[in-house]
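Handout, section 4.2: multi-component inputs.
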Amino acid sequence: MLVAIARRLAGMLAVMFIVATMVFFLTRLAPGDPASLMLGDQATAADVAVLRATYGLDQPLLVQYVLWLKEIASGNLGQSIFLQRPVLQAIAERAEPTFFLALFSILIAALIGIPSGIASAVWRGDRLDQAVSAGAMLAASIPSFWLGLLLIQFLSVRLGWFPVAGYGDPGASLGMRLYHLVLPATVLGIVNSALITRFTRASMLDVLSEDYIRTARAKGISEARIVLRHALGNALVPIITVVGLTAALLVGGAIITETVFGLPGIGNLVVSAVLRRDYPVIQGALIVIAGIYVIINFAIDVIYTLVDPRVRT
Amino acid sequence: MDLAGIVLFFRRLFRRKLVLFATLVLALIVVLAVLAPLVAPYSPTGMRVANRLKPPSGINWFGTDEFGRDVLSRIIYGGRASLGIGMAVVIASMLAGTTLGLLAGYFRTLDGIIMRMVDAMMSLPDILLAIFLVAVLGASAGNVVLALAIVYTPRVVRVVRGSTLVVRELPFVEAARTIGVSTWRILTRHILLNVASPILVQATFIFAYAVLAEAGLSFLGAGVPPEIPTWGTMIATGQQYADQAVWVVLFPGLAIVLSALCLQLLGDGLRDMLDPKLRKAL
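Output:
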């Protein structure tokens, strides 16, 4: 079992190494010299040369790459050009809204997706099943920013039920801050419920056709108990995976929703960094976000290895 | 495939009325976009400031925008860019993804490296990777296509590789290998034809995702330049007028929802029909 975990750990490091490499070289493709970008239009050639030397930009590309990898490996993601602070600090300051948004969105998505997926599988082929499938597809077809704009328009601007944007005043209480997340979390929850619905349905259908379900039926166990105990218990493994991975993707994937609702989260940080060409922030955020995904993925794998003897091979 | 085969294909596909309906709506949207100059009631760029932000009426069915331009005409023209970008993304990601997937699935030596790259790319949310690539490449329609094609290629690679791994071990491939058929021919003839169904299914879904992603990028200001009407740029520029004229935002969004929904329904129909495992179960 330790070997399996070690192998996964190695795979995880390999993936992170590739992400870092990709991010480094792709960023270097960007038009414009980073040093002149940092200094702006008024910089003299001498200023630029000095800055290039300080950041090692006058070194050959491969040397820069190795130096950069070393910094990343020691946890230093560099300095933001515009925010005048370390990238890691900038990300940490923005983590709270993103964390709660991802948490509530995934809860809403799971609350919609899991029951409707189960119902869809139990009554497969029925009208209900078709309605759920169509509903899931509709949810996956809605641009989150459009739904967000419409909800803001009707529920916030016209009815005044929710704040229009933002995350509360700087001193706002936690309750007030979370109140600002109701609409964005609803939007993301609806849009992301589609995948969970589909997975739950497929996973339940797989399990419901197993022999032990037939045995349970033959023993006269009630249908509700069969579905909720015998089937769901076993179908839950892939469902938890997809819920976990969706949550991980929400950390960086909520950028559009954060922008619509003016939430000062990590996504918002990335968008403003892109618009200002603040490359250290873009690079750092990509690495942190990929890291979170890879770690959650790894955690799920390890939990399985511990819980499910069949995965242990 | 001969004519009878094609007829049978569509008859099977359209056995579900919803799939037929979705295909017809989709065809209508495509035809409108292609024939935009003939069918659009007004010019998409003709400004009449006196007419700005007029609600939907008999003259302007979907109302007018902040410059007095007809929203319906802009949606019809916008379909050209939105669907055109989606189509280009599908073609590019299919070509790249199929090639890499075949290589990864057939040659064990390439499998490790290709799949680790795929894992790395899939560890980033689609939209985040896309916005990063557009930032690096520069915002233009061509670069949006390139960025989204890169984003969706890994999905295709996974599907093609998975199918290739299965088909590779089938007796007819082994037979072909034994009688000395070249690797190139085995890959392009025997394997590619047998993994075509999942590729086709994937293509329709990627089309839908690409239409949505293009809109998202335009909305973030990291996509197609705002002067080109796409459904995404229409919502992006219209959002500040949503208070007074919600139709400026509502209708382009509906065009996106309708297209993405029809594409996914079609993809679902194709999957039901082409996946023999599902078919047996039905």
